[in-house]
Amino acid sequence: MRPDTPAEHITEAERLLRTATRYPEDREPLLLQAAAHLELAGERARAATLYDDLLTADGAPADDPHLVKALKAANLWEYGHEAEARAIIDGLRVAAPRAAAPWTIAAETLEAHDELEAAHELFSAALALLLTPGEEVPYATQSLLTGRHRVRRLRGSEHDDWDRLADTLHTAEVPLDELHDPKRLWSLGSSDPGELKAEITRLRAELGVYRTALSRPFPVAVLHWPAAELAELLAAYPALAAEYPDHAGHLTAVETALRDLHAAGTANLGIVTGTIPSYEAFAASEAASPADPNLLPLYATTLAARGRALPWPPARSAACWCGSGDVYRECHGGS
Hints:
Elements: H1 6-22, H2 27-40, H3 44-55, H4 65-78, H5 82-95, H6 100-112, H7 116-130, H8 142-155, H9 161-169, H10 176-179, H11 193-214, E1 220-224, H12 227-236, H13 247-263, E2 269-273, H14 276-285, H15 295-305, E3 310-312
Parallel strand pairs: 1-2
Antiparallel strand pairs: 2-3
Helix pairs in contact: 1-2, 2-3, 3-4, 4-5, 4-6, 6-7, 6-8, 7-8, 8-9
């Protein structure tokens, strides 16, 4: 049963915190989930301490500090710390993270507090950084286009190229223009059955979009091993050599597998990076041998479910997923 009352949310947060103590390798996603439950329970100050724990220099560094800071800013603003929240959002813009989620959360925080101009600027800055004209829009980046479209609709702005792109990517029955119509809420107070029926149709379409997103909590992920980790893996478990003849071939196989999945119509693709300690711990939890090649896809799926996946493909001007330091278009993104 999903938590519903504040007490149930606090109970779930406590469970997640205990789990994080038992599984420190999953500490970050578990603490973020616990913080979300505390926010829903109205325990915003306590949620803020969890965000601080993830950002403190004394603990293990956060895998995604920009995401943690954006969530912290959203939480702070909700319980009266507007100045601090603004400072964090300003810092995120200067840091210019290469992932969409921190930008989306920060811009939606501004939007939620009627800072439409600032929200529009943040959405636009993110898209200018993360989108390359003419290239396919990564799944994670589509939320920026949708959010910007919504804000521009609220501001009464004329459609531009990014708005038209958002319209193209939107697949629900009701168009974005209707979903984001600032006048639509007025129809909820109407006594006209026709208007009420139309609004119900719009709301169902909007709910369908959210259900689709919730039904895909993590991407279809392919497992990637850095060179040093792969060498250690094969030294410890030679039976896996058939899966990984050499590191260069492994990297090529990862990119090829993702391209094949994409060509087959699979959306929301990602890459997870393996480490020997977490792989061995996963094998132990499954009562299986790390030398069993059938364990590898299960390990990849588990990492993705724990929030460890990076969206694929990256922007062609972004760093390649393989860690070479080259931009994607000049590395594995080359055609």
